[in-house]
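ligand=thymidine-5'-triphosphate
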Amino acid sequence: MTKYILASASPRRVEILGHLGFEFTVEPSDAEDKLKKDFNKLPPKEKVEELSFIKAADVAESLILTKETEEGDAYIVIGADTVVAVDGEILEKPRDRADAGRMIELIQGRSHDVYTGVTLIYIPKNILENRGVKEGNKYLELFKILENQMNEGEKEEETSELGSIIKSLLNENKLIVRTFSEKTEVSVYPMNEAEVEGYISTLEPYDKAGGYAIQGRFSAYIEKINGDYSNVVGLPAGRLYHEIKEVYRCTTSLLKTI
Ligand SMILES: Cc1cn([C@H]2C[C@H](O)[C@@H](COP(=O)(O)OP(=O)(O)OP(=O)(O)O)O2)c(=O)[nH]c1=O
């Protein structure tokens, strides 16, 4: 049986994946905070794709190295990241009230893009079953070295090596990794000062990219969208379902190589 793991603390992602009918467990990753790498230099599409990979790879690596498996299950780990992009600036979650106000001022009365990147990592049961043998130990050692480097706060290139176990397994054709992203264009009605103030006085902006929730009070200010609605809320449901189907299509060739 294949088990699904959502590598995200976002309650919106839990809801969207639940709607798709998958049974899954939630194991959030704090890999993003561990990295010193400056993702802000990347364009939004690359940034969300890279961060989704980092989150999924972090959870997949711990799974490969530590998880007690039941009767040799296979796993699909799902990582995601969402940002708002306006005039070449990337808006993540606002730091404070002033930052939330700045973001709402920036996006009101015009359109912006919301990007969500998703990474799926399929771990066949054979990898988990082989953990105890020689090859498994090789990865365990690599993982320990990386962890020590992070603890000691060593050089930036080394701390950004998170995901290298997944990459080396992928190179050896032992995993399936699929990364993709969706863009949704969102047009926001003009807002007056009282409306901006009123909105940032709610708790809504503070855990959302761009400082707003299309699914909440901010719906009052949404004029139209072009693209997938669920993508704005944190997970592009339709694309995700079809990408998971594609993963299963690829498992046939993967299993031949293990
Ligand atoms: C634009 C927008 C974003 N969001 C949310 C989706 C994401 O949860 C959040 C963007 O932050 P992310 O950093 O993508 O995700 P997260 O911190 O919530 O969870 P994790 O890192 O553990 O995966 O913003 C909405 O809920 N509604 C919206 O309209």
